[in-house]
Amino acid sequence: MLKSLTLVALAFAQHVQAAAYTPACSASNFSFPELDGTASMSITAVPIYNYTATSLSIGGILGSTYTISFCNVSVTYTHPGSGDAVNLQVWLPSPSSWNGRLQAVGGGGYSASFGSLYMTQAVGTGYVALDTDAGHIRGTEHAQSPDTWALIGPGNVNMQLVDNWGSTSVHEMAIIGKAVTESYYGTNPSYSYFTGCSGGGRQVMMSAQRYAGDFDGLLAVAPAINIENFIPAGYWATQVMLDLGVIPPPCEVEAFTKAAINACDALDGAEDGIISSLALCDFDAHQMIGQDFSCNGTTLQFTEAGAATVQAAWTGPSSADGKVGWFGLNKDASLSTSYISTECSSNGTCTAVGQLLSSWIQYFLAKDPSWDASTMTNELFMDYLQQSEQDYDSVLAADNPDLSAFRVAGGKMITWHGLADETIPPNGTIAYMEKVLEMNPDSSEFIRFYEAPGVGHCYGGAGAAPVDALAQLVSWVENGTVPETLAAADTSGRPRELCAFPLQQVYVGGALDSADSFACRPRAENGTLASETSFV
Ligand SMILES: *[C@@H]1O[C@H](CO)[C@@H](O)[C@H](O)[C@H]1NC(C)=O
Ligand SMILES: *[C@@H]1O[C@H](CO)[C@@H](O)[C@H](O)[C@H]1NC(C)=O
Ligand SMILES: *[C@@H]1O[C@H](CO)[C@@H](O)[C@H](O)[C@H]1NC(C)=O
Ligand SMILES: *[C@@H]1O[C@H](CO)[C@@H](O)[C@H](O)[C@H]1NC(C)=O
Ligand SMILES: *[C@@H]1O[C@H](CO)[C@@H](O)[C@H](O)[C@H]1NC(C)=O
Ligand SMILES: *[C@@H]1O[C@H](CO)[C@@H](O)[C@H](O)[C@H]1NC(C)=O
Ligand SMILES: *[C@@H]1O[C@H](CO)[C@@H](O)[C@H](O)[C@H]1NC(C)=O
Ligand SMILES: *[C@@H]1O[C@H](CO)[C@@H](O)[C@H](O)[C@H]1NC(C)=O
């Protein structure tokens, strides 16, 4: 209520000032704020007219083309003594196009920011947009490997850059972004939001856990909460495959997934190509050994090595004592994209491809650009998993369930995760949310988590993904409209209402194209809950 009145007051102030106050997009109109441990290096400000780019909203599937005009402010600063240079971009729409709000956007993979890919739509929908490169190169093309920045020399990780990426740049972005906004419009943003998917979702989670008060609303999609665990652990299937020395073609990997969906799709009552009832799906890839599948018109048989590799992706690694390991992917997630990514040449020889998972071990654990994955034993792999937890948990993990400061600051957070995520096992997010609810059974007053059955990483898949989670977040923050469910739709437009955890979406009968055929129900008591696993 207080907030709504402030909004009205600010809108009025803005209106009154419009005549007298002319924002100037010139570097001399911006100054670097007081911020412990930082020093400004440069500020530039250049007006950009009719900039056209294709851009995505966080968790959106369809890119749209926007033409935007804005003041492009670029702020570069350092942490004195460290030799780093962190760059922040703030894109300021004209006062008449500004909706009074600020939206920071995160990156993904090893990149802290994707620049225009997310920023353009934010400006196009009226927000001040900002992102930070955290001191290393931005862009989707650098998301797969930290090769350009991880090491200061052989055997030595650049811990300043890891720390910037892990948390500090998130807070610095908020403070500097708000100062730049105020300099330009002569008023603070009425509300500030931070949205991100994957690695960006982890940045958002970090904001809630360490810098409560920086943002009013947070949207964390498929958050990389335990990045130090699931990235190296995700390499387990490839490790098993290389250890067996048999590389299955992509079509065999995909055929295993189809077989699992055939076996488990109907367990939830709805035959929709989605495995919703994960606890009931005890399908084992070994059941398929020797059976036929079709690969580009040729009939082949499922192999034992293929089954062992696929099963490794589904169960995840676990050390003999059960203390080191991580979750696997659900059985309707695509495996050939990332966990078992292979390529075959015309002579039939297949090889493992993809860098996202292996580059973590190469740069952050082996710390050796010439590291040879094929020489790693299963034992060394488990040692690396343990090392990763020891070295990076305190700087990168966004898994602190104590969100009391965020609650006190009055923040609101929406997080959702596709259950068919092919990169980040959703069970990690489920395990985190169980801990949040255990610590504060009333946490749904300020953080809500929704499972999206059948949805892939950030977007994609057969399931229904949220249509506009940010709009629901804005209504929650600004109007107090509680998002009891998240409005979602699949790619053919079939609507669903995603359930707030720990409720679970269940099919209650009726047509699959009607949202009313599904309801939110408590989890079955016998469902294996993720937190029963010892390593979380
Ligand atoms: C912006 O800077 C220019 C000088 O570069 C100055 O003339 C102008 O008054 C400043 N505008 C504001 C709004 O501070
Ligand atoms: C931007 O595009 C609009 C509409 O096409 C045009 O009227 C305007 O002159 C353009 N502005 C600049 C600075 O090019
Ligand atoms: C904004 O300014 C920065 C710094 O000069 C520049 O690198 C970037 O390309 C500019 N962005 C656009 C969209 O022009
Ligand atoms: C089918 O063949 C094409 C070209 O020969 C190849 O690119 C593709 O990977 C194959 N598909 C599968 C599923 O192996
Ligand atoms: C993930 O959690 C579900 C229950 O929510 C469970 O059935 C499944 O076995 C878990 N998967 C892994 C790989 O731990
Ligand atoms: C098959 O082709 C790959 C790449 O084209 C080559 O490296 C490999 O030696 C070939 N294998 C055989 C058995 O000819
Ligand atoms: C808040 O509620 C009012 C009245 O129902 C509505 O007009 C407005 O669009 C809502 N604003 C948001 C951000 O949801
Ligand atoms: C779990 O419990 C439900 C009823 O609560 C029952 O219908 C179902 O068969 C049980 N599943 C397993 C695997 O025990």
UniProtKB/TrEMBL annotation:
Pfam (any one): Tannase
Enzyme's top EC category: hydrolase
Coiled-coil features, chain-numbered ranges: none
Entries under InterPro entries matching the protein: AB_hydrolase_fold, Tannase/feruloyl_esterase
Keywords: Calcium, Disulfide bond, Hydrolase, Metal-binding, Serine esterase, Signal
Signal peptide: 1-18
Name of this chain's protein: Carboxylic ester hydrolase
Native source organism of the sequence: Stachybotrys chartarum (strain CBS 109288 / IBT 7711)
